[in-house]
Amino acid sequence: MGDSVSTAPRTRREQDSLGPMEVPVNALYGAQTARAVENFPISGITLEQFPPLIRALAQVKQAAARANAALGRMTQAKADVISKVCDEIIAGHHHRHFPVDVLQGGAGTSSNMNVNEVIANRGLELMGLPCGSYEHLHPNDDVNRAQSTNDVYPTAVRIALMTAVPLLMSALEDLADAYDRKGDAFEGIRKLGRTELQDAVPMTLGAEMRAYGHTLREDVARLQAAIGLLSEVNLGGTAIGTRVAATPEFQSLALAELRRITGLALTPSSDLIEASWDVGVFVHLSGNFKRLATKLSKMASDLRLLSSGPRGGLGEISLPPMQPGSSLMPGKANPVIPEMVNQVAFQVIGIDVSITCAAEGGQLQLNPFEPLIAYGLLHAVQLLRNAVETLRLRCVEGIEARPARCAAHLSASTANFAALVPEIGYDNASALARDMMESGEDWDAFAKRRGLPTRG
């Protein structure tokens, strides 16, 4: 007897304004999402991979449903169902039903309709009705009432970033603290400071480490300021800021609900038409990410230089060995964590270029390239946070000083002569430095012979 073949349907048929579409039978999304999946098989990176944005979209929909019910434009029963589904999504459920590619045309319409359809169909399930029976709960007429992609999507992106950026800031504070601890531990270790990769003047290894912590805290302050700029949202402006299909009272009610739901200090845009196309805050935030990435990359390169060798290079610090460094060369351990940070920085800098181009490319009353901007920013903040946490845990906290190497480099250099300039003048100090180099002596021997202070 042959194997039985299942006759259960694999798809259900739904209809959108372009015609019928087959949708996987167990999917909570509908026809427009299915069409977007077909239209945009681009990056393989889907909305599902960005939970902060999915949660933010659900928060906007929940606020809108409550506002519509308060205005009498939606029954309380429908608003309650929508709100319950939004609570489920915010809690992390149903995210696998967000399959649209992050790179999509339509200024985010596919993402907005994806959440509209998931909320509608899950709501229908809660009502004991089959998915797709939209006459009872409609993705557009109910879930999207008084809204447009053009105010929902940028509002949600701002909320997602306002929740993601503080996590990066916390990681940066932790990394700065780790550098400060190394600064305290290495305070008494004198070493050679360098400019243009040449011997310069003495310093301490502790001061070098603490400077990294200080510069990171500068970027935390810049990010905090950027969060304040993100708080201005255009919800209620609908398509181009003219409030078409929304009552004048909707904006204030929806925004009040959204503040309660998110706990964020959101404010209304003062010019909704301008806010419909202006993405300046995203360019600004991307610039902050680029600034941070540039600093992190410089810092990572410094760690690679300071630990280089360890016998044939500077070798003034040791980084914790994280993996064998070669498939051929025994005993080699590469600075793989700083190398990773460099690569993350290069990626974030590239993202900033793409965001700049996308921001410039918008026309008239809408920027259609906001999906690229949203993806770039959410990807960048995720990369930076992961890189910063990994740098701290797998590198900085395990840094060890090599005091003898630091002392040897300092003693072999002419760096100590800079301290003599105020007393004997630049020309005399230069002459002494030349004499030391010609003698082949180190600083301690030369200083003792010439009667100079041995610590410079």
Automatic annotation (TrEMBL):
Keywords: Lyase. One of its GO terms (molecular function) is aspartate ammonia-lyase activity. Residues 19-350 form the Fumarate lyase N-terminal domain. GO terms for cellular component: cytosol. Its EC number is 4.3.1.1. InterPro entries: Aspartate_Ammonia-Lyase, Fumarase/histidase_N, Fumarate_lyase_CS, Fumarate_lyase_fam, Fumarate_lyase_N, L-Aspartase-like. It holds the Pfam family Lyase_1. It is an enzyme of class 4 (lyase). Residues 1-21 are annotated as: Disordered. The keyword Lyase applies. GO terms for biological process: aspartate metabolic process. PANTHER family: ASPARTATE AMMONIA-LYASE (PTHR42696:SF2). This is Aspartate ammonia-lyase. It comes from Alloyangia mangrovi. The gene is aspA.
